[in-house]
Design goal:
The structure holds two protein chains of two kinds.
Chain A (H helix, E strand, L loop, with lengths): L1 E8 L4 E6 L9 H10 L9 E3 L4 E7 L2 E7 L5 H19 L4 H6 L1 H11 E2 L2 E2 L4 H7 L5 H10 L10 H4 L15 E14 L5 E15 L5 E6 L5 E6 L5 H7 L1 E4 L4 E10 L9 E9 L5 E10 L8 E8 L4 E8 L3 E5 L4 E7 L8 E8 L12 E8 L8 E7 L6 E15 L2
Parallel strand pairs in A: 8-23
Antiparallel strand pairs in A: 1-2, 1-5, 3-4, 4-5, 6-7, 8-9, 9-13, 10-12, 10-22, 11-13, 14-15, 15-20, 16-19, 16-21, 17-20, 18-19, 21-23
Chain B lengths: L2 H13 L10 H7 L1 H5 L1 H8 L3 H16 L8 H5 L7 H14 L4 H4 L3 H7 L5 H13 L6 H12 L4 H17 L4 H12 L4 H14 L5 H4 L2 H7 L5 H18 L7 H13 L5 H14 L10 H10 L8 H14 L2 H4 L1 H9 L4 H17 L1 H4 L14 H14 L5 H12 L4 H17 L4 H11 L5 H15 L7 H10 L6 H13 L7 H12 L5 H17 L1 H16 L4 H14 L12 H5 L23 H5 L29 H11 L7 H21 L6 H6 L1 H18 L4 H22 L1 H13 L6 H15 L3 H11 L2 H6 L3 H13 L16 H16 L7 H4 L8 E4 L7 E7 L11 E9 L5 E10 L5 E3 L4 E4 L4 E9 L7 E6 L4 E6 L7 E3 L4 H10 L5 E7 L7 H11 L3 E3 L6 E8 L5 E8 L4 E8 L2 H15 L2
Antiparallel strand pairs in B: 1-2, 2-3, 3-7, 4-6, 4-8, 5-7, 8-9, 10-13, 11-15, 12-13, 13-14, 14-15
Helix pairs in contact in B: 1-4, 4-5, 5-7, 9-10, 10-11, 10-12, 11-12, 11-13, 12-13, 12-14, 13-14, 14-17, 16-20, 17-21, 18-19, 21-23, 24-26, 26-28, 27-28, 28-29, 28-30, 29-30, 30-32, 31-32, 32-34, 33-34, 33-35, 34-35, 34-36, 35-36, 40-45, 42-43, 42-45, 42-48, 42-49, 44-45, 45-46, 45-48, 48-49, 52-53
The chains are: A alpha+beta, B alpha+beta.
Amino acid sequence: MIHSLFLINSSGDIFLEKHWKSVVSRSVCDYFFEAQERATEAENVPPVIPTPHHYLLSVYRHKIFFVAVIQTEVPPLFVIEFLHRVVDTFQDYFGVCSEPVIKDNVVVVYEVLEEMLDNGFPLATESNILKELIKPPTILRTVVNTITGSTNVGDQLPTGQLSVVPWRRTGVKYTNNEAYFDVIEEIDAIIDKSGSTITAEIQGVIDACVKLTGMPDLTLSFMNPRLLDDVSFHPCVRFKRWESERILSFIPPDGNFRLLSYHVSAQNLVAIPVYVKHNISFRDSSSFGRFEITVGPKQTMGKTIEGVTVTSQMPKGVLNMSLTPSQGTHTFDPVTKMLSWDVGKINPQKLPSLKGTMSLQAGASKPDENPTINLQFKIQQLAISGLKVNRLDMYGEKYKPFKGIKYMTKAGKFQVRT
Amino acid sequence: MSAAPAYSEDKGGSAGPGEPEYGHDPASGGIFSSDYKRHDDLKEMLDTNKDSLKLEAMKRIVAMIARGKNASDLFPAVVKNVACKNIEVKKLVYVYLVRYAEEQQDLALLSISTFQRGLKDPNQLIRASALRVLSSIRVPIIVPIMMLAIKEAASDMSPYVRKTAAHAIPKLYSLDSDQKDQLIEVIEKLLADKTTLVAGSVVMAFEEVCPERIDLIHKNYRKLCNLLIDVEEWGQVVIISMLTRYARTQFLSPTQNESLLEENAEKAFYGSEEDEAKGAGSEDAAAAALPARKPYVMDPDHRLLLRNTKPLLQSRSAAVVMAVAQLYFHLAPKAEVGVIAKALVRLLRSHSEVQYVVLQNVATMSIKRRGMFEPYLKSFYIRSTDPTQIKILKLEVLTNLANETNIPTVLREFQTYIRSMDKDFVAATIQAIGRCATNIGRVRDTCLNGLVQLLSNRDELVVAESVVVIKKLLQMQPAQHGEIIKHLAKLTDNIQVPMARASILWLIGEYCEHVPRIAPDVLRKMAKSFTAEEDIVKLQVINLAAKLYLTNSKQTKLLTQYVLSLAKYDQNYDIRDRARFTRQLIVPSEQGGALSRHAKKLFLAPKPAPVLESSFKDRDHFQLGSLSHLLNAKATGYQELPDWPEEAPDPSVRNVEEEDLSLIETHVGLLGEYTEVPEWTKCSNREKRKEKEKPFYSDSEGESGPTESADSDPESESESDSKSSSESGSGESSSESDNEDQDEDEEKVRGSESEQSEEDGEKRKTKKKKVPEGKGEASSSDEGSESSSSSSESEMTSESEEEQLEPASWRRKTPPSSKSAPAAKEISLLDLEDFTPPSVQPVSPPAIVSTSLAADLEGLTLTDSTLVPSLLSPVSGVGRQELLHRVAGEGLAVDYTFSRQPFSGDPHMVSVHIHFSNSSDTPIKGLHLGTSKLPAGISIQEFPEIESLAPGESATAVMGINFCDSTQAANFQLCTQTRQFYVSIQPPVGELMAPVFMSENEFKKEQGKLMGMNEITEKLMLPDTCRSDHIVVQKVTTTANLGRVPCGTSDEYRFAGRTLTSGSLVLLTLDARPAGAAQLTVNSEKMVIGTMLVKDVIQALTQ
């Protein structure tokens, strides 16, 4: 299946290669570089590139291309999904996944990659198992290892590999038993020029951080499970229970994991918490344009909107912008034509606004497109769909865990067309 | 320099690794290899005794490998450390070895013995990693060693080692394909492995080594389907895609007869989930209406696959979701494919690479099954932040989804896209508009006008693309659009994009009669600029000139000749050719007249309008989700998705023989005959499977379709026959009607069987003769039923026939009580049938049935054994179900009944009576419950151990099961002193409750509290046979353990009960109206129970 993996940074250097079968010369990446050149932007590089003898499948994350080389028919999503899993694993191991970090930990990276695939077929991809095989580097462990001569490599088969719950390692012990669940909802929306909603949908996830001793069996129930239209589960969730009772019943992995992601059914009207008033105009003859946007709260359920940022890709004809924000800071990059405005909190009494002029290329006719405005924001302690967790119960263990549930709403792909 | 001595030593090491002291001239090596010097320190570190130094060195070497630097010259130094005690050093050495062994084969051999030792290590991780590395060293000499190691590991105790063995198979195969036959043996062995850990890897090996050996899958098919949900994600993908191919070769196309069933069934399918009971009803009607037309019947195994993969649509892994989606697309009946749309749309939220692949597949699907994605139209709207390739794919999907109703919204979206900054995307949008315009006649003019407006766009690319699309649109109806052509003609002055210029010229030439005044002028201008044009434009200029010459030679003769002369000396030979050819054609000359007379016809022939179609049109001949589909080209190693077979291959190949075959074979031996697959194993297996299937039918929502109930038809019809006949044999309650039934059934059987199993019947009959008869009645009655189905003989006669063949001595050994087992067992199957579900079984205790049955048999068989008393114990419950067949249980037969008595230990438990009977000739000792693997919440109260059960004896025990108000099966182990049997009890929903007695007023009050969501109402038609009070009440109470509530009106029946575990009320009202119409209402907090109960009761009543 997967023959080799090349890690390529944005400047086109191959800084890591790993082969699971016979060695594939790195010259195969030339085809990739060719495609990269043809695509103007990194995300436009086609994920699948056929070459005379191989196929290159790549994902682009954290400014690194992960290029897998395959030789025979494989479902492309299989490879892509695996590559993403590799990135996630690195992130899990090192906190961040970036070129310097990978270079610093190249041996661990190599060992992890060796365990993840055998002859190109995934062997161990659960981070709980991997971490037992190869322990993630920490300062403390490095110190201990140099003194005692012990190693980072486990010498026993991880218990998870053989058990019916491969995602959980056995013998977990904590002094403070706690389970935290974050219900995070994202609003994807397209708002048209006049402020009416073209599409809006809510996608949510429940991320969990479970640090519980032993083999706890948790059940999580919702006040209004009907809201969830389409769900996908972590493998630990018992599907039958969900089907029959709409209860999430699971033996959790140890540590951080995504329990559930869901889609809120489209029938429910989506509350749009912010509005954007905009007035962007280019005049035909003059070399100046007017720019003015105001952001205000709409349906916020009484919560404050925080972390608001506004970004917009301005047309090529815009040379520079001179703007004054009523709050926050703004930047405009004259090369990429990217305007971004870090607004912060919205105060309903004094709506934040950004006003000013744009200087346009002299002599050029007015650009016929208007920029779209992308919005980011956060609302704490609110799940915009109204989803509520009813209760969390634990079976199978005696102690009383500390349980916490947090709600948050964020903007997903929130776009305002002007 | 301190490194000098070490250096010379190492040099020697590299030459002859066994003898490091081997003398060598340091200077001669040093001259040409600076590499040696560079790695000197590393070698030194590797040669020390300190693990920490070795580790440090190995880390640096691995870092070199990772960076792609050549470290092969260190091979000898590294390989020495292969037996190092430090596990991390060892691991890194392995990494190094796997990387370089291929290049230094001789040296690599030195490490082999270490691995061979490792293969025997007690630690499974070490065994596995030794095998891993051994098989990863691509050195052809060690092929035999590898083969041996793989074979050994394939029967290792540890599943992890077996998994590694599965991984090693393709490695060895790629090294030496001559080993294929032996490897296939190993694959076959590993395919039979029952652990989920191995399943994925071995299927992977199967796919790489012998994907054509589909026959290896047969026996493991059902196991794979059942294990699937527990296999890790990567294995799931591989298994699903293999099973897709498998199913395409083994089952019939579910769409072939769709038209037959569609009218009746489609409605039920599209109905909401609550409609399912209705759907079941109408499909029964459909089945009844079309008995002769041989409706499509889905193989139960086909259904099994679809059902077991469906939950995986909820997987977090995009690859799994895609795999299931393609499976449904390729295998599911049309009406069921829709379920995948939601999951695929969900994947669009994922990373852009995932989106890219998913959208490609959605584009292909949306052409074939547009309706599937229509509700999700808005999910494909494009955001300015999407990468261009995603935008273009979304556009493709939007275009495919556009239809008469949604086209206004789609076009409005397209309008915004046209103003995007991304010009490639704008061009694609314009093409998309063109396609919408050709596909949907209603909006053609609107689109055309919009495109014409775009002609005044400032961006040349936009204009050019519009011109090209307009050209295609105009070709469809040129007459009305003279104005547009004129407008386009004006554009020739401005547009520079060659493709657009060429398109305009072609248009003017083609429709020059619509623009007679402008055309020559355009030609004049083009002639002027001819030399400066691009090649495609030049060709079109020649075309234009030729066409004008033919229609309007007066004005254009000179111009044409001028153009042709210019073209004659053009650099491009195509243009020169064209010019020469055109001149010969249009300018009449002396010699060649034949063609030029037809020149006009040639040039101005009406040309068909181009069809604008999606580039994804015929991509679905590639398996969706595959690399080949994505590239639209066959990738290496792509396995063609076979077409459905015309005739389904024999489904019995998937039947699995039980482990306890040994026992049977001794019987076979007794009779001196041998058969490959004893017929009866087949039966009992099939029945077992059906019992397992039952929960699915009852609890999965919206699934019951015509195909499903049809599933069980042909084959189980024969079984039903035996049921009905055995019933009639026992007919105490209503022997008359039963006889009629039997006749009817026989007729039906004849009808359906004659098509399906005429040839089968022949086979079976002959086979049957060979089947050893000594196995006792259980098997013979099954056979009897089968033979009766094929030959329309009554069971009795076949029974007696066999009797004569059987040695009487054997017959005596088996107590007649076992006879009741098959009869009761088959009753449990009945609820898959169209006729006679288990619930219809009269409340009369099963004991009576078996008594009479036994009595009948006694009369027939003349055996003298008497009935075992325990069988006669008054148990008022529903019919007996089989827990363990006597053959599977090596003589121990176990049945169970729901006694409906409160369980003494725990009121939440359902009390289950278990009947054991020993039909072997040795006493069975120490019967007790073993470990149970129960779903959460379900608990079991064991029965006291039965110390001994003498041959021929029976015993009854009571156990309690708390099913937790769900119909999940309770799986547990039944142990004797020598054996363990896995058994499972699956409660019908009606057994999960206990009656409560309440007054009418109370009932109404409680019912008032359980309205809305908690109320399920269904309409039904009561057949004539069950219009009387007595029968209705009887049927309801048989189906569900409810108590009757007194009622004022005569044609209303009320029943009440509480679920055992949670004690929630279950209220059932049946409102009978004149002429058989009735309405059934169930009120219960437990909605699932309510729905299932409604279904069961309706089924019971409408039989």
